[in-house]
Design brief:
Length: about 160
Amino acid sequence: MVAACACLSAGAQTLYKCVQKDGKVHYQDSKCTEDAKESTLQKLGPPGEPGPPPPDPVAIGTAKAAAVKNRAADIDAVMDIIASYEGCAQAFPSFASKFGSAYQAYRTRNAAAVASYEQDPEAPAKVAKRVAEQKNELVGDAAALRCDKTIGPMIMRAGNR
């Protein structure tokens, strides 16, 4: 690699890694031939100039924490929709007929979040618990109206996002 770096001129350059079909690796300052697999390592500045700074471990940790937090928020949102739909659908079969396609549209448009929910070993049990708790609350005309006028439209809006 030292020899490859020595060939670079004083201006900023791109270093190419070329892997030939026979597995031999070459580093060069020009694009690889068509039969080689090419990857760009980095742009290099003039000799003696410092290279790019290393990644900030705090920023990487913060980004990972944010990703975990976002995934948890996505799963919570999915659990809210599923528990609300399932509770109303079990209590009022006409609800499922009326809003079933909107619920399926929600699941399709939010497939990644739904997949995260399905892969979370605790999430389905939490939803089942919520649905069971709703059984006592989802009784009577007032509950049917709540499902029809609040939960159903919420699912429709979520399916259209």
